[in-house]
Amino acid sequence: MTIDENILLKHLTTFKIGGLARYFCVAKSVADLKEATTFAKKAGVPIFVLGGGSNVLISDEGFHGLVIKMAIQGVKFEDDGNYVRAIVSAGESWDNFVSEAVKKGLWGVENLSGIPGTVGGAPVQNIGAYGVDVSETIESVEIFDTDNLGTRNLSADQCRFRYRDSLFKRPDGKDYIITKVSFRLAKEGKPNIFYKDLNKYFTLPGAPKSSIEEIRKAVLKIRSAKFPPLDKFGTAGSFFKNPIVDNGILEDLKKKFPEIPSFPTDDGLVKLPLAWILDKVCGSRGLKMEHVGLYERQPLVLVNFGEASSHEVLVLADKVAMDVRDKIGIKIEKEVRAIGEDRPPAKYRTGFWTLAYIYLPKITAVIQFFGWHHFRQNYLIGFLKSNKSPEDLMRHLNSKGYSRAHLAWKDKGEVFSVRKIVRHDFQYHIRFFNDYEIRGHYEYTAESHPIGHLCEAVFTDPKDYFDHLLYGYVEK
Ligand SMILES: Cc1cc2nc3c(=O)[nH]c(=O)nc-3n(C[C@H](O)[C@H](O)[C@H](O)COP(=O)(O)OP(=O)(O)OC[C@H]3O[C@@H](n4cnc5c(N)ncnc54)[C@H](O)[C@@H]3O)c2cc1C
């Protein structure tokens, strides 16, 4: 197995967003997992396991550790009386497995047809759709423990499955990599078509009989009308979980919104459909901000319409969460896992830097008053296009993860100066001037290498990057 460096992750996710992995490998066996884990321990970097990348939002800053792409293959069906045990390796495609089970007439996972991702990713968030959760058919899960480099089986109970949740999302499951999942599938089964859309499908005049094959067909058809096509748009499916509240909260909500739907859970609480809340209460259906938005046909789904940054997605997600909190007082949780840091890195959010951001600009202003640094730094990117305003440029840069550069000289004629931190210690720094000139460079951050920053130990012109970033905003 080879361990590569600086691999772009965006193409390995369905959101089509994400920066570089510091280290990257593809694991095809447990032996590969051992090798990868040993490497990460020696290098002192964290591990992130990537399945199909359909439930993650990877930061544009990338992941400063080892990404292990799970590719262990293998499917085995064992007869067990009225049941068949399917033992499936974690790197298998989830939907290929469902298709195979349906072809064999084995009941249990047909309602989960069409969900992207791997078999190993399915237990992590206990995938569910059309009234069925995968935990209902999981018998056990084989895990590789990165702590002691051994494998062992966990029973379904030990996996502590809940609504879109499991042990693997919690701190005590953080050392486990799923290598195989055992499913108990029934030779004879009853159709589970109580879910509204499925029920409607099978009760229309001329509808087919709800055989296992027809249920799969129906689910695939309903899903294709609800989710954006992955070859056109980036998405990770539902971005948020449906909120679960107690009956008291539901009764209060009903006073204001009498028609609010609700579904009782096994533990005496109620699940509220967030799509309904976003649509009917917040009026957010079709909400769009720059390159991201809520999918017109399903407001729970956040969509990357083009070249969206991870920061843009998080800004929209924050807005949606704030709207829900303001309108009905409920805090909603992300279903999608955000990987890597949003800016600025945590180490720059300390009390020291907060004070430095306030006082250092004042000190540099005094120094500059006495004549120090009275020019423009290299490199010229171009000029702002006449059909764009400085505010348009600022909004565009903000949406790409740029924020005010506090620790910087004020260049001659400067209107504003913004930066984006990458790879922890470096930054892209862009300045806009009163004659519409735009200049920018790549360098050490002042926080990470104060002397290196001041002496311009690294000071380069990432021309292709700026051309791409400012396409439509700059003329040469
Ligand atoms: C269009 C679309 C529709 C979707 N519809 C649904 C739906 O109906 N219901 C639903 O529940 N979800 C849905 N999802 C979400 C997603 O498909 C599932 O959560 C899927 O199971 C994620 O699997 P993955 O292999 O892509 O995991 P990834 O996205 O690669 O990873 C997700 C998380 O699981 C961890 N992980 C992955 N593999 C392993 C492993 N082998 N061992 C340990 N940890 C691992 C990762 O570290 C990460 O934390 C949808 C997504 C999209 C894009």
- What number is the mean pLDDT? 91
Into which percent range does the helicity of residues fall?
25-40%
Describe the main β-sheet briefly: 7 strands, antiparallel
Note the beta-strand portion: 25-35%
Describe it.
The protein is of the alpha+beta class. The protein has four domains: 4-70, Uridine Diphospho-n-acetylenolpyruvylglucosamine Reductase, domain 2; 76-144 and 151-212, Uridine Diphospho-n-acetylenolpyruvylglucosamine Reductase, domain 3; 235-339, UDP-N-acetylenolpyruvoylglucosamine reductase, C-terminal domain (Uridine Diphospho-n-acetylenolpyruvylglucosamine Reductase, domain 1, Alpha-Beta Complex), CATH 3.90.78; 346-475, no CATH class. Helix content is 27%, strand content 28%. The protein is built from twelve helices and 27 strands. The chain has helices at residues 30-43, 94-103, 121-124, 196-203, 212-226, 247-256, 274-281, 310-328, 351-369, 390-399, 450-454, 463-469, and strands spanning 4-8, 20-27, 47-50, 56-58, 63-70, 75-80, 83-89, 128-129, 132-133, 138-145, 150-155, 176-186, 234-238, 244-245, 263-264, 270-271, 288-289, 292-295, 298-304, 337-339, 380-384, 403-404, 414-422, 426-433, 437-444, 459-460, 474-475. The strands form seven sheets. Strands 21, 22, 23, 24, 25, 26 and 27 form a seven-stranded antiparallel β-sheet that branches. A five-stranded antiparallel β-sheet has the order 6-7-12-10-11. A four-stranded mixed β-sheet has the order 1-2-5-3, covered by helices on one side. A hairpin with a 5-residue loop joins strand 15 and strand 16 (270-271). The longest helix is centred in the last third of the chain and has 19 residues, at 310-328. It is globular and about 85 Å long. The relative contact order is 0.09. The site of flavin-adenine dinucleotide (FAD) has 32 residues, from strand 3, helix 3, strand 8, strand 12 and strand 13.
